[in-house]
Structure formats: structure tokens, C-alpha cells
Amino acid sequence: MPIFSYKAIDAEGTVVKGMLEEINLESAIESISAAGLHLLNISQTHEYVVALKGLLQRRQKIKTEDIIEFANNLAVMLRAGVPILSGLSSIAMGMENKYFQGKIDNMSEMLEHGSSFSAAIKKHSDIFPNIFNHLVMIGEETGRLDQALEDVAVHIQRMEDLAGAIKSALIYPIFALVTTFGALMFWMLYVLPKIMDVFKSMQVVLPPITRGLLWTSEFVQAYKYPIFAVPVVLILIYKALRKFEKTRYYVDLSMLKLPIIKLIVYNKLLALYAEQMRILTVAGITIDRSLEIVADLMDNDVFKNAIEEQREDITTGSRISDAMRKHWMFPPLVTRMIDIGEASGNLDEQYGFVAEYYLKKLHKVSQNMSKMIEPIVIGVIGFLFGIIIVGLMLPIYDLIAEINA
After folding, report:
1. SS3 track for the chain
2. What is the pTM of this model?
3. According to CATH, where is 1.20.81.30 located in the chain?
4. In the CATH hierarchy, which fold is given to the domain comprising 261-363?
5. Which CATH architecture has domain 64-156?
6. CB 3.0-4.6 Å disulfide test: which of 115, 156, 210, 383 passes with 119?
């Protein structure tokens, strides 16, 4: 449909500008008049101009925090009895992100023209996740739109906390690896060659450990570019292995078994599983459909296969907790909580408790990661630089002994 740019005056005498998508010019004029605006001028905008404007606006990215704040603010206003159009207008006026402000204004126009709020959210699926639309639809049907918005804000905040906890947990190990590798390469490429040149010029007989250092230094100098490429090659190999179903399963299984790494991956997957199941249950989606959605969201084939098998068991009449007990990755704590939820009828709350528990556990792992990695890093660095120091000191000791003799 064509897009029209218009300039009009509202009931308060304020000049407003905007864009409207309609079938033709007459429909656009009728829509503007129906919104209570006095039209000054209107013209059809070329699609390339609209695309360019949208591209420039998208450079101002909508952050997850903006979506959370939007949902929370609108929930508070609706609970206070403020009409949804007035609430959207107030939020848009206080919005610093102009691109998001334009999206909210567009939703307000859709509501003025008779659309439902869920339809307006669905049209802007590029910024609102699918679960946002599902919960808003449930909220409109039950008359609890304020509660639905609050639930979706909590869900998005938990997913953001989960992503933040994973990043925090990975910062120290990556920093330790990069700094250790960088320090060793610096010594091998710049420091050791100069010291070895001094030993050679003095014709000192080098002990075996020093000759080993010399060979290592020469090897690093000769193959420094392939050595620097090793991390990239390992990443490419990892990605290549995950492209094939058979190898991907064993790669994902190793992530759940390797020391330290499993603490991050395992807790993350359990928190993700529980939180997604919680919000889908709140949205009124059936358990089998929820498990199907969650399985697609899992980036670990071990968990994905277990959830798919769990779904098959449930569709044949099994209880959720019984289906979970068949798989080792669901610990007794989780199965007991879900069992209680099934018996008491508050399954969403139990999923919420599980998600919060493993999210806190992941935060604790990220905080203690430095304590777990630090002894290993100190031991490795101490061992390597101990060899370097001994290898450098032995020729000097021999040289001093010859001078004294």
C-alpha cells in the first residue's frame, strides 16, 4: 500500500506531522479526519524515501531496556486507570529514542483507527518478540492487560539477566587466556631472541633446557602467523562440527561435561528452559506446544533431544515430571518442583522458582569464576615462566663459574 506524508492540526491547535499507510488518498484523508485532526496538506511519499528514512532511524537501536521500560510504564498507567491511548501518548512524549517514539506513535494511530493493541504489537514484530504479542492477546481476552504487560516485562528482564550473567562469567576466562598467550608470545618473539643473541656472541655452551628455549623461540618466530591463526582455526573447527547433526550432539555433550565450562552452559540451559516454559504457560499455550517452541530455542542438541522426547511422552499420557525423570540433565530438584506444580495447579509459579534459582546460581558462578580460574592461570604462568627463568639463569651461572675459575 502507498504511504502518505501529512501535516495537520490537532484539537489543541498543535501542528503534527506523520506518515500513514492507506489504500489510496481518499482513505488516507478519511483516516486523518477520523483521528480528530484538521488536515493542512498531504502527499504520497516515494517508497525509496520511506526506506531511506527507516534505515537512518534504525541506526538508533532500540535496546532491550527500552522494551522493558515501555511494558512496565504502560502496565502502571493501565493499572492506575489511564486509557491506553493516553498512556501510549505519555510514554512517547518521554521517549528519548526517536525511532522507538515513532513506533509508539504508529501504534497509537492504529488504535485510533480501530485496531487492537495486540494487532499493533504484531505489526511491529521487528522490535517486539513473539511472546510479547501472545501475552498481550491473552491480556486483552481476559481483561488483565496490565498484568500481561507486567509478566512480559519480567520475562524479558530475566532473559536479559541471563545473557548478562553469561557474559560476566566468560569475561575473566577470556581475559586470562588472552593475556597469558600475549605475554608468552611477547617473550618468545622479542625478549628471548635478544638474550639468546648475547649468549651466542659470548660462545657460551648452552644447557639442554636453554637449547629447548632457543628452539621454541626460533619455531615461534618462523611460524608466528600460523600460531596466531590457531584460535581462529579452532573456532572454525568448532563451528564446522556443529553444522553436522552427529558431531553437533557430541560437541554439545562435551560442553555439559567439561570442568568449569559445564557450570556456565548447564545452568544457563536449565534457566532458559524453565523461564521459557514459565512464560509460555502464563500465555496459555498448551504444554506440548510449549515444549516444541522451547526445543527450537535450545542451542544444545542434548537438551533439545531430551525436550522433544519429553514432549512425545506427554502426548502419550505421561505426566511432565515423570517424562523429565527419564533424562539425566533434569536434576531431582527440578523434577520435584514440577511435580508439585502439577499437583497444586501452579505450574507457572514452579517454573518461575526454577528459573530464578538457576539464574541466581549462574550469577554466583560468574562472580566466583575468577576464584576458580585464578589458581589454574597462576600455576600455568608460574610453570612456564619458571622454565624460562631457569633456562636463562643456567648459562649465566655457568659463565660466572668459568670466569671465577
Report:
1. CCEEEEEEECCCCCEEEEEEECCCHHHHHHHHHHCCCEEEEEEEECHHHHHHHHHHHHCCCCCHHHHHHHHHHHHHHHHCCCCHHHHHHHHHHCCCCHHHHHHHHHHHHHHHCCCCHHHHHHHCCCCCCHHHHHHHHHHHHHCCHHHHHHHHHHHHHHHHHHHHHHHHHHHHHHHHHHHHHHHHHHHHHHHHHHHHHHHHHCCCCCCHHHHHHHHHHHHHHHCHHHHHHHHHHHHHHHHHHCCCHHHHHHHHHHHCCCCCHHHHHHHHHHHHHHHHHHHHHHCCCCHHHHHHHHHHHCCCHHHHHHHHHHHHHHHCCCCHHHHHHCCCCCCHHHHHHHHHHHHHCCHHHHHHHHHHHHHHHHHHHHHHHHHHHHHHHHHHHHHHHHHHHHHHHHHHHHHHHHHHC
2. 0.68
3. 64-156, 261-363
4. Receptor-associated Protein (1.20.81)
5. Up-down Bundle (1.20)
6. 115
pLDDT in tens, the chain (405 residues): 577 788 888 777 777 777 777 777 887 787 777 767 788 888 887 655 555 555 555 445 788 889 999 999 999 999 999 899 889 988 888 888 888 888 888 888 888 888 889 888 988 888 888 888 888 888 888 888 898 899 889 888 888 888 888 887 778 778 888 888 888 888 888 888 888 887 777 777 788 888 888 888 888 888 888 888 888 898 899 888 888 888 999 999 999 998 878 888 999 899 999 998 998 888 888 899 899 988 988 889 999 999 999 999 999 999 999 999 999 999 999 999 999 999 988 999 999 999 999 988 888 887 787 777 778 878 888 888 888 888 888 888 877 777 776
Interior CA angle at 31 toward 30 and 36, to 5°?
95
What nine digits make up the cell of 189?
618473539
Cell 668459568 sits on residue: 402
CATH 3.10.20 residue spans of the chain: 3-58
Amino acid letter, residue 348: D
Distances (CA, A) of 90 to 70, 101, 320: 11, 11, 44
Hunting for cell 509508539 — which residue is that? 104
Burial class (CB within 10 angstroms; exposed 0-12, middle 13-18, buried 19+) of 211: middle
Q: Which cell is 302 given? A: 542434548
